[in-house]
Amino acid sequence: MIPRYEPVIGLEVHAELQTRTKMFCGCPVVDTTRAEPNTSVCEVCLGLPGTLPTLNQRAVELGLRVALALGSAIPATSRFARKNYFYPDLPKGFQISQYETPLAEGGSLSVPVGESAERRVRIRRVHLEEDTGKLLHAADGSLVDYNRSGVPLLEIVTEPDLHSVDEAKAFAAELRSLLRALQVTSGDMEKGAIRFEANVSLRAVGDDGLGPRTEIKNLNSFRAMARAVAFEIERQGRRLAAGQPVEQETRGWDDDAGRTLPQRDKEEAHDYRYFPEPDLPPLHVDPAWVERLRRGLPELPEARRRRWQREHGLDLRLAARLSEDPAVADYYDAAVAAAPAVPPAKIAHWLTVDLFGLLNAAGLAIDACRVEPAALAELVALVDAEAISPPTGKHLLARLFRDGGRPAPIVEAEGLGQVSDFAALERLVADVVRENPEQVRQYRGGKKAVAQWLVGQVMRRAGGRAKPSLVQDRLLAALEAGEQTPPGG
């Protein structure tokens, strides 16, 4: 019998910190997708002889905010080390990082998985380091842009607690939401602000050990990470099923080919010849400073979800979707505050279904939306009070999305209120019944589903402004009673 295997996945996440200057020099941090190559460099980030690094305090502060949010232990003293390896994008021949004494250790992150469950993923370490340069490959060779060299990076390493592609993707998304809520990184994955490395192995179900692992390098999107991890699970599974060993190695991801490719044997710590960075003293963190940072933390995505579930009755799936983007979460809270009489779940539905649909179609973020939170709340309130019909609400939302403004004045000025006048509806129903004898005959012959088509005809004549439940009641009464003319007609 072929044994069944389960994946064991650990992630290393590199986040570019939002500082004005680089990690160890005063060069400004620039957008490497726009800036001219090698225009934001100096002797320090180019690794020229005789230069000395100076630690960026703001980078340390941002790293501490993340460590506090993850519940990590922050030692009073940490220190930097030299990680030695040779590659064209590393001008010094070593990277200044942290190894034996990182900025923080331990902690965890609660991750929504599935429709209603959450699980905690343990954090192994959080440490600071500098980024490398960027290789630009062309048909006739490769070039190096050192604008990114020395940009502050925060590396977050998980324990091997993830056991599926979906769990890995959910963790990555949740961590990105946390980092954006803390305002420590832009989270712009298209520009490489967050990059992933995945350690993947398989073990027999029920086994507590760890099999030989492969590390997949430089995954710069959720999609790439998910595809790479899925391919590696399948590749290792095929080898094990065929009785072949899995080699411990570093592999790269070829997105066009949809496969991982071997790069080199998996390095261990001794391969990098770590030793303390002689040009930087140990980093001593003042406990009072840490406590001030702790008190200044914003409401985090997990806390927001808990609050929305407790106070608003949202299910986990909806709460998780709203908490993915801090700007969306702020928008939702503002909309709920603007309409305390409206069920918050209805506002959440209009936001995540109707407004998200308009934003996605236009390729806009919530920050660029012309529909103010109070305007959305007012719109939902009008629909909830049956002052306007849901179809009218959708059309009005599209108009507000295009032009801005508030819905109530438009409804009043243009007479968009829902038609609920009993006599007017009776006349519309009678007209539809009289003008569609074949459908009426089908209904009375037992084809009850045709009633919904007749309801649609009444709604069309009412311009979408009739109350659907009232239309259905009056139409069914007319069909059952055999009425074909309005009262007194």
Q: Descriptors for this entry?
A:
single chain, 489 residues, alpha+beta, Arc Repressor Mutant, subunit A, 3 domains, nine-stranded mixed β-sheet, three-stranded antiparallel β-sheet, 40% helix, 19% strand, disordered C terminus
What is the number of helices?
15
What proportion of the residues is helical, as a percent range? 25-40%
Structural class: alpha+beta
Give the radius of gyration: 30 Å
Biggest beta sheet summary: 9 strands, mixed
CA-based shape: elongated
Please give the number of β-strands: 16
**Alpha carbon gap, first and last residue:** 81 Å
* Estimated share of beta-strand residues: 15-25%
What is the structure about, briefly put?
The chain has helices at residues 57-70, 165-181, 222-241, 287-295, 301-312, 316-323, 326-338, 344-362, 373-384, 390-403, 407-414, 422-435, 437-444, 450-461, 468-481, and strands at residues 5-16, 77-78, 81-84, 94-97, 104-105, 108-113, 117-130, 134-138, 141-145, 152-158, 194-204, 214-219, 249-254, 259-265, 275-276, 283-284. The protein is α+β, with helices and mostly antiparallel strands and 489 residues long. It has three domains: 5-293, no CATH class; 299-414, no CATH class; 422-481, Arc Repressor Mutant, subunit A (Orthogonal Bundle), CATH 1.10.10.
Question: What's the helix and strand layout?
Answer:
Blueprint: E1 5-16, H1 57-70, E2 77-78, E3 81-84, E4 94-97, E5 104-105, E6 108-113, E7 117-130, E8 134-138, E9 141-145, E10 152-158, H2 165-181, E11 194-204, E12 214-219, H3 222-241, E13 249-254, E14 259-265, E15 275-276, E16 283-284, H4 287-295, H5 301-312, H6 316-323, H7 326-338, H8 344-362, H9 373-384, H10 390-403, H11 407-414, H12 422-435, H13 437-444, H14 450-461, H15 468-481
Parallel strand pairs: 12-13
Antiparallel strand pairs: 1-10, 1-11, 2-16, 3-4, 3-15, 5-7, 6-7, 7-10, 8-9, 11-12, 13-14
Helix pairs in contact: 2-3, 5-6, 7-9, 8-9, 9-10, 12-14, 12-15, 14-15
